[in-house]
Design goal:
heterodimer; A: 252 residues; alpha/beta; Rossmann fold; six-stranded mixed sheet; 12 strands; 42% helix; 28% strand; B: 448 residues; ten-stranded mixed sheet; globular; binds adenosine-5'-triphosphate; binds magnesium ion
């Protein structure tokens, strides 16, 4: 589904991704862990098409298409979704209006019929239940005045509305209380399917008790330096990153 | 505090054709309305002396009026009406707004095309000949707006052939919207149109007024010189919405003076979408206690538009509240200008006065000059002002696009969101909806 080969990217002249390789198959859940500043959010941003990030080498294909040439909107329409680590507040644009525009632009690009207000409302009500979101939130401006946890929940709600093929969740668990973590994880699990893949970026093995990954990778200094299964996350939790850092220096 | 008329290169000489047109008009009025003829004669001599302000005049620094002196404008007379039909007037109505439409064509009321048969109860509408002897008209028409400091008001006073007068009786609660549509209809040569409107809402009256400006036909350039005088009587409530839709050959220099009495309320919104060169001078005098006033503005500019909003809120008495919010979206090579004065006179203790001007520039060549001027001579007051000019937020734009929303749509959504709070404050739901529609139309067709 997603194939990243030797990806190199820089921001403001500073090289952040240094030849990153990652293969994600259909229906798989991959967790990416790694120390602060190692490049996890940069990877997510490059995948989503943020313009401040310059790709200086390598390739990314998504569902057989070159991803890096596409505009952010075309990537989203093709089925890529990024749950932001820091969702922005957009005063004056209501959540409902924003999502209706998004859902319909995505549908249009797929040759599907546009939803009228009634069908849209129905879809929204159904998906809102999934993340136990309050109806009042949809009438408010996008993320404006939302608490940290509400913003994250709103990201998952948007994901549920847009039904992507690949979702990249950037620290969706940070800032969530215990109940919200359970709700969000439940929402993600409900959307797991044979056709849909996930990249879950997290610092905490705890999340992976709820969203059980097929693979776990460690990103360090802009590269995937170690890959394994669920057990790797447990090992990291117990030992920290030092042993990986040491290993990487030895190997380099 | 008012600035004196200035000299020394701060003015262009008064154009001859304007003076000649005024002399003709003075002769017309001499027999039938000697009082008005006198007022015009005085304005004529003031204008003759002052001429037209140049960019060296402090209040006209960013607005070049020299085309007024170099273009050969003919001033419209009452002979310049009846080109428009009832159907033309209907095209200016807003869907879903129950309004009494008054079409002022080239400065004079087009009676056939206006709703004079369905004037709401408690309202009188008429010309100088019809209502000129009413005490409210004698007191206020030609006297609120100041010909002494404002050369273009003097020009208007000497040349406005057919002032329109709207009198709302004491305690009348007028539901029907009073919509005055000012249309400039040029033929093949440049046309100067002087419009004059007096609105008096007597004690305890309440009404909603739309003042819209249009160009009909693209034949030649137009100069609309508009003066509006409003009296908001004690305890009266006036909602006033001004919308400027003129074309790219139009210039609109307008001056609006409002006199508010104690316990009155006014909500003013100025929406500027069209016009090549627009100046809105808005002067409010709060002359009583417990007055509440809102003055909001929104200008959405593209191409080579130049739009200048000069506002003055004059707090003359204690215990009043004024709130001002002006916002601009500026694209292409357009220029926005905002000058917001707040005066709090020594007597005006316990004044609350707020002002905010926020702009976004959508292109590198777009520009904005903003200048808040607070002059506070009382000590027990709450006043604040703020001005910002920035770009469209790139983070927000990326967020929307990352959800599959195309770039153009995403930009339009963000622009609408920026403008939303000005329109949202308009209290009449039908007018609010109509304004949103014209706003959306402009935002989705912004010219570079
Ligand atoms: N716009 C930017 N300008 C300058 N440096 C940046 C920018 N964005 C990211 N960086 C730098 O790139 C490096 C990687 O940042 P990134 O956000 O990808 O890390 P991360 O792995 O997501 O970290 P965390 O776990 O703290 O979220 C950091 O050193 C960061 O300071
Ligand atoms: Mg990060």
């Amino acid at each position: 589904m997603l194939s990243i080969k030797n990806l190199q990217a820089s921001v403001e002249g500073k090289q952040i991704l240094n030849g990153l390789n990652l293969e994600i198959g259909q229906g798989e859940v991959h967790a990416i862990m790694g120390p602060n500043g190692s490049g996890k959010s940069t990877l997510a941003s490059v995948l989503a098409g943020r313009e401040d990030y310059e790709v200086t080498g390598g390739s990314v294909t998504f569902l057989g298409q070159d991803l890096l040439d596409a505009s952010p909107e075309d990537r989203a329409r093709a089925g890529l979704f990024l749950a932001f680590q820091y969702p922005v507040e957009i005063p004056g644009v209501s959540n409902a209006n924003f999502l209706k525009t998004a859902v319909n632009e995505v549908r249009k690009s797929r040759g599907q019929e546009i939803l009228d207000s009634k069908d849209f409302l129905k879809l929204m009500n159904e998906k809102m239940k999934l993340v136990e979101m309050d109806k009042a939130m949809t009438q408010r401006s996008v993320n404006e005045g939302f608490s940290g946890g509400e913003k994250k929940r709103n990201e998952i709600f948007q994901m549920a509305m847009l039904e992507p093929r690949l979702a990249v969740l950037d620290e969706t668990d940070s800032g969530l209380d215990i109940d919200a973590l359970r709700i969000v994880s439940h929402g993600v699990n409900a959307l797991r399917s044979k056709e849909r893949s996930f990249v879950v970026i997290t610092h905490y093995q705890r999340l992976l008790d709820y969203i059980v990954p097929d693979f776990v990778h460690v990103l360090y200094k802009g590269r995937i330096v170690k890959s394994g299964t669920r057990e790797l996350a447990l090992e990291l939790e117990a030992k920290g990153y030092d042993w990986i850092k040491d290993e990487t220096t030895v190997n380099a | 505090m008012p600035e004196a008329m200035s000299k020394n290169g701060q003015h262009h000489p008064a154009p001859r054709p304007f003076l000649e047109a005024a002399e003709t008009l003075v002769r017309r009025d001499e027999g039938s309305m000697p009082r008005v003829a006198d007022i015009r004669r005085k304005a004529l001599s003031q204008f003759e002396q002052s001429g037209i302000p140049s960019t060296r005049h402090e209040e006209w620094k960013y607005l070049d009026l020299s085309p007024l002196t170099t273009t050969d404008f003919r001033t419209a007379t009452p002979d310049d009406i009846r080109k428009l039909s009832k159907a033309d007037a209907d095209a200016l109505r807003h869907d879903g707004v129950d309004a009494c439409l008054l079409l002022v064509e080239n400065g004079s009321l087009n009676r056939d095309a206006s709703d004079l048969k369905s004037v709401p109860a408690g309202v009188r509408i008429g010309s100088l000949a019809e209502l000129g002897t009413e005490p409210a008209v004698i007191d206020h028409l030609f006297s609120l707006a100041d010909t002494h400091t404002e050369a273009l008001v003097a020009l208007n006073t000497m040349l406005s052939y057919d002032p329109l007068i709207i009198l709302v009786e004491a305690n009348a609660q007028v539901e029907t919207v009073l919509h005055v549509a000012f249309a400039a209809v040029p033929e093949s040569s440049p046309l100067n149109v002087c419009t004059r409107l007096l609105v008096v809402a007597a004690t305890g009256a309440s009404c909603t007024l739309i003042e819209s400006y249009h160009t009909i036909g693209e034949g030649a350039s137009t100069l609309t010189n508009a003066v509006t005088e409003t009296v908001v009587g004690s305890g009266a409530r006036v909602h006033h919405i001004k919308v400027q839709h003129e074309n790219s050959l139009a210039r609109n220099i307008s001056y609006h003076k409002v006199h508010m009495a104690g316990d009155s309320y006014q909500h003013l919104t100025t929406l500027t979408l069209g016009g090549a060169l627009v100046r809105n001078t808005l002067n409010l005098r709060l002359d009583g206690q417990q007055i509440n006033t809102y003055l909001n503005g929104l200008y959405v500019l593209d191409g080579d538009q130049v739009v200048d909003n000069h506002t003055l809120v004059d707090h003359a008495q204690p215990n009043c509240y004024s709130s001002e919010l002006y916002k601009g979206i500026i694209s292409g090579r357009a220029q926005g200008i905002f000058n917001g004065k707040i005066w709090v006179r020594p007597d005006a203790q316990k004044t609350n006065a707020y002002q905010s001007n926020k702009n976004i520039l959508l292109s590198d060549e777009a520009s904005m000059n903003t200048k808040p001027q607070l002059e506070i001579y009382a000590d027990d007051v709450k006043c604040s002002h703020g001005a910002t000019t920035g770009q469209l937020d790139e983070e927000s734009l990326f967020y929307l696009r990352a959800r599959g929303i195309g770039e153009a749509t995403a930009r339009a959504l963000l622009n609408q969101a920026f403008a939303a709070d000005v329109i949202a404050q308009v209290e009449h739901p039908g007018i609010r909806e109509a304004l949103l529609q014209v706003l959306d139309r402009k935002l989705s067709n912004l010219q570079s």
